[in-house]
């Protein structure tokens, strides 16, 4: 008979000292214990130190660069000495590089190019402003109907991908996406503004554009808002003495209305605005026969015609060179003050004194022809620029006798062609050379 093995251990209690296996209880997980095991904490500190050392020793290259367009504008040599201090150029043929100051910009602070529209950018002042904006690296859209502007003033930018030209009259609305609007579009000489005044409607359309896209808007107003002033020199708080129905009123009152609209859009719609009141300005690219006194005198003297002086010639004006004006406009746009600001040269000249400076520059034998004075011609005009000095850090740098030869050189070329007397062309870029050449001739 087979034996049976019957386990009856469950019938007897286990001995307390029994060696039967039982697993250890599981301990809760701890981050601290995890880091201490297998030297994980040490390896973490070593990795952090290596990364810190790498970023500390990495060289910082902060030289700003302009996009390498095949047609980046290079400022012509004749006008570089009239640029404000701090602007530098490097020429590589037609491919120029533009740098600010020493060319060093801290990492992360590189200036972003803006998208800027310049109405009237084909004109005298507008084209010089476009040159500066392009050289700064901005993308520029010129809107101009070429009533007084000239394509020749902008041709050196054709082909540059940052430059656009739209033939358009601002009295009709236009839709653009921009950051800033310089509104210069308006005939500024008596010959033209009496025929086609566009101050109010064009300003209204551009203010509407600024409101829609959130752009900052700069209005180029005029010293004509002071009319025939009873205060001398004129400060921005002076309200003026204007004939509202005179032959010049379409311009005077048009600009005053433009200022009113600008401030209404600022107060009522929150549009960022700036207002500049521009005094007499001269320089290359002025209209040769636009009826303004400096261009009249220069063109007449070059053509061996008598210089026309209206009245007794004792009326006074203040004349600023165009590069000074452009610098003031850009400082105003980039600043934090609405204005208005007087932008002009406080150096005051009578018409006879201006004629004498033109004689000294062009032809000592140039004759003067006196004619009856025009209606509503202001007797005195001189800006008080204390506000611009204090808040914008701006004041004109170029004296009349320094800037006039550069304008004469431009007029000589445009009137007589490139093969005219080379004195102006050879020396126009350096006012000191102009002065030394004249002393040598004397």
Explained architecture:
Helix 6 links the parallel strand 7 and strand 8. It contains 13 helices and 15 strands. It is an alpha/beta fold and 442 residues long. The strands form five sheets. A seven-stranded parallel β-sheet has the order 5-4-3-6-7-8-13, sandwiched between helices. A two-stranded antiparallel ribbon has the order 1-2. Strands 9-12 form a two-stranded parallel sheet. 37% of the residues are buried. The protein has one domain: NAD(P)-binding Rossmann-like Domain (Rossmann fold). Helix 7 packs parallel to helix 9 and helix 11 crosses helix 13. The protein is elongated. It is found in: Golgi apparatus, Golgi stack membrane. Catalyzes the NAD-dependent decarboxylation of UDP-glucuronic acid to UDP-xylose. Necessary for the biosynthesis of the core tetrasaccharide in glycosaminoglycan biosynthesis. Its EC number is 4.1.1.35. Its cofactor is NAD(+). InterPro entries: NAD(P)-bd_dom, NAD(P)-bd_dom_sf, UXS-like.
What's the SSE blueprint?
Blueprint: H1 31-36, H2 40-57, E1 87-92, E2 95-100, E3 115-119, H3 124-136, E4 139-144, E5 163-167, E6 180-183, H4 190-193, H5 199-213, E7 216-222, H6 249-269, E8 273-278, E9 281-282, H7 293-302, E10 307-310, E11 316-318, E12 320-321, H8 322-334, E13 341-343, E14 348-350, H9 351-361, E15 368-371, H10 386-392, H11 400-416, H12 422-427, H13 431-441
Parallel strand pairs: 3-4, 3-6, 4-5, 6-7, 7-8, 8-13, 9-12, 10-15
Antiparallel strand pairs: 1-2, 11-14
């Amino acid at each position: 008979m087979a034996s049976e093995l019957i386990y009856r251990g469950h019938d007897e209690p286990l001995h307390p000292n029994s060696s039967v296996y039982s697993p250890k209880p599981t301990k809760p997980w701890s981050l601290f214990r995890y880091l201490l095991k297998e030297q994980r904490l040490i390896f973490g500190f070593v990795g952090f130190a290596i990364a810190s050392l790498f970023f500390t020793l990495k060289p910082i290259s902060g030289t700003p660069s302009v996009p390498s367009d095949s047609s980046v504008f290079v400022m012509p040599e004749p006008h570089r000495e009239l640029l404000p201090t701090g602007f530098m150029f490097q020429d590589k043929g037609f491919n120029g590089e533009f740098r600010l100051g020493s060319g060093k910009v801290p990492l992360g602070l590189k200036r972003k190019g803006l998208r800027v529209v310049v109405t009237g950018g084909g004109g005298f002042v507008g084209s010089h402003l476009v040159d500066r904006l392009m050289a700064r690296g901005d993308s520029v859209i010129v809107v101009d109907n070429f009533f007084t502007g000239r394509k020749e003033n902008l041709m050196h930018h054709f082909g540059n991908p940052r430059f656009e030209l739209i033939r358009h009259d601002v009295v009709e609305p236009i839709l653009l996406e921009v950051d800033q609007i310089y509104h210069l579009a308006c005939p500024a000489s008596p010959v033209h503004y009496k025929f086609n005044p566009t101050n109010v409607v064009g300003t209204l359309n551009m203010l509407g554009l600024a409101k829609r896209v959130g752009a900052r808007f700069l209005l180029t107003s005029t010293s004509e808002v002071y009319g025939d002033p009873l205060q001398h020199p004129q400060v921005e708080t002076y309200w003026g003495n204007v004939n509202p129905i005179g032959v010049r009123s379409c311009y005077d009152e048009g600009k005053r209305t433009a200022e009113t609209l600008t401030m209404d859009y600022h107060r009522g719609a929150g549009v960022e605005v700036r207002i500049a009141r521009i005094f007499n300005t001269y320089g290359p690219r002025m209209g040769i026969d636009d009826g303004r006194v400096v261009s009249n005198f220069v063109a007449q003297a070059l053509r061996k015609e008598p210089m026309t002086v209206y009245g007794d010639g004792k009326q006074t004006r203040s004349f600023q060179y165009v590069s000074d004006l452009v610098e003031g406009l850009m400082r105003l746009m980039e600043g934090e003050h609405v204005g208005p600001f007087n932008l002009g040269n406080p150096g005051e000249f009578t018409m006879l004194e201006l004629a004498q400076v033109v004689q000294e520059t062009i032809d000592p034998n140039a004759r003067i022809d006196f004619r009856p004075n025009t209606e509503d011609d202001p007797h005195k005009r001189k800006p008080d620029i204390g506000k611009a000095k204090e808040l914008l850090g701006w004041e004109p740098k170029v004296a009349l006798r320094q800037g006039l030869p550069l304008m004469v050189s431009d007029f000589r070329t445009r009137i007589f062609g490139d093969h005219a007397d080379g004195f102006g062309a050879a020396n126009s870029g350096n006012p000191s050379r102009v002065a030394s050449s004249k002393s040598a001739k004397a």
